[in-house]
Amino acid sequence: MSEDPPSSQSNTKDKPQERSWIDKLLNSFTNNEPQSREELLDIIKEAASNKLLDDEALEIIEGALSVSHLQVREIMIPRSQMVVIKQDETPEEFLPKIIESCHSRFPVIGDSIDDVRGILLAKDLLPLLLNREQAFTLESILRPANIIPESKRLNVLLKEFREKRYHMAIVIDEYGGISGLVTIEDILEEIVGEIEDETDDDDDDFIRRVSDDDFIVKALTPIDDFNAFFDGDIDDSDFDTIGGIVMQAFGHMPSRNEVVELKDFRFRILYADSRQIHLIRVTKLG
Description:
- The protein is an alpha+beta fold.
- It has helices at 8-14, 21-27, 37-49, 55-66, 91-101, 127-130, 154-164, 184-192, 223-230, 242-250; strands spanning 77-78, 85-86, 105-109, 116-121, 147-149, 168-172, 178-183, 207-209, 214-218, 259-262, 265-272, 277-284.
- 32% of the residues lie in helices and 20% in strands.
- Strands 8-9-12-11-10 form a five-stranded antiparallel beta sheet.
């Protein structure tokens, strides 16, 4: 009677192979199959404590699980914080908003914020640099706006973003009014944490030089920082920001291109809404 050939199992025993952390994690389910999302998270956390996966992997798994039950309303940028462009604005009027916000996409509205006409991609404005003499119409470069309800789940929206290849959606409430917007980056940050890029604001980005004597200054620039940058002596006893000082100098809420001189500086409003100043052009005098 011939001997049975050695089994593949015995061969595997002779040559153990290193298993990946995902294999180890899946193996842990064999005798302890989770019955709920909470139990699944407990097992994953236990696997992390046993060094089967690192902290970053744990955070990504937790984030991926969270988007399956979160709704758009829980992460959207609210209506009050949306940066929008009016359809009848000229490039001179809306470009300061684009410069200040550093966003890449902007809802374009008609008579009100509830009247969304489309989405403007900042990159679509680049031809203006080469064709300044050509007639420009904002409507000709608008992209369609994707409208979604507040109740849409994030995992469903992420799938739509990927399949339909768009990156921003306008969110409406149950009455059809605009309640906010959401981007694909907002969802990805729920999974992997905050994503920073070269356009995100740093503390040193309040002041940008345009020429030797001209600068673009954010209204939220602390007066101490303004004085330090320009070697100025503007009083900060009543206001904390340069926007507050400029507002006081005007004596009213200024509109775009209004100018006031203070100390050794000329301040021209680049962008302001009905509530506050956002962006100022500062010229050193003398």
